[in-house]
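Dear colleague,

Thank you for sharing your sequence with our group. We've completed the structure prediction you requested, and as agreed, I am returning the results in plain text so they can be pasted directly into your records. Please verify that the sequence below matches your submission; if there's any discrepancy, let me know and we will rerun it promptly.
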Amino acid sequence: MTSAPLKTLNARSATVSKFDVAIYNPVLHKYTYQNKKTGEMKDGQTFRCLLVCTQDCSQYLAATLTMQGTNAKPLTEAVANFKKNKRFRMDKTRLKYGVQQQYIHTPVKVVVDMAGTRFDALVSDGDGDAEQLAPEPPMSVADCVLLTQNQQFDVTALVEQIDPEREVNDQRVVREIVLVDGSKIQEKLQQLRLSFFYDRYPSAKDQAILKMLENAAENAKPLILFAIQGKRPRKGTSSKLPATSSSPQPPPPLVRVASWPYLHRRSAPRRRKSERRSRQLSRGRTTPRSKGLRPTALCCKACAQIPT
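Please find the predicted C-alpha cells below.
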C-alpha cells in the first residue's frame, strides 16, 4: 500500500491510510506542575516533534507524547527512537481531539497522539537526503498580514529590521522585529511586525533568540519561525513571538487552555423552557444545567531554525 499525502490526514483517513513522515525538532520537555486535588508539586514530561511529509515538505504537523502518571519509560524510548531526520511509515494514526484548529500553527490542522500510533522505520536514501526534509511553511508574509483573527502560524522570512529595546514595565521589555519575504498585496511590498517580549535580565534562551535574530538581520539569512502568535489588536494587525521567562515556572504544554477566547456551541435547535425542564426532571436533574462556555486551546511553543 502506497503512502498518502499528509494533507489528507483527518479523522476518517487516520485509521485506514498510511503516511511516510520524517522527524523534525524532537524535544523532551520536563516541567513541574501542581496537582489540583492534592496541591502537591509533581514532575511531568512531554515529548514533542514535527512530522514532515516525505513527498512534500510544505505538509507537516505536530505530534506529542505525554507522560501518564509516573511512567516515563515511553518517553525515554521515544527520545531514543524518534531521532531528527529519521523516517517512518505512520499507520493506525491516533489524533488528539479538543484542539481548536485556528490555534494549531502547522499547515496540516491536526495533532498526532504518538501513544496510540504505529510507526514503522523506513530506510532513507542517505543522511544528506534526509537532512533536506525540513518543514517549508506555505504561508507568505502577505498571507499572514491578511489574517483577521487570533491565529498561530509559521513563516519563512528575512529579518529586515530590529528596533531598540523598549520598556514595558519594571520587569519586562520588548523589541519589535520586522520580517519581509518579497510578497506583495496590490503591488505593495508587505511587512510583518513582531513583538518579542522578555525579562529585563534575559534568560540564556532569550539571549540566544536575540543573537540569532541579529545574525540573521546582519547576514540576510532567511529564518523559519514556528508558532508565531498572531493577535488581533484594536486597530490594525500585529504578531508576537511567544516570550519565555527566567522565573521558575513550568513550560507550557503542547496544548494549554487559554483564558481569553471562548466558543459557545449549540448542536441542537433551542427547545422551549417547559420542554427542557421536563427532560431535566426525567433525567433526575432538579436544576437546569449551567450554560458553560468551552475555552479554545493554544498550540505549541515557538522555536526558530535557520535553514541549511
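Summary note from our side: The chain has two domains: 11-131, 141-249.

Kind regards,
the structure core
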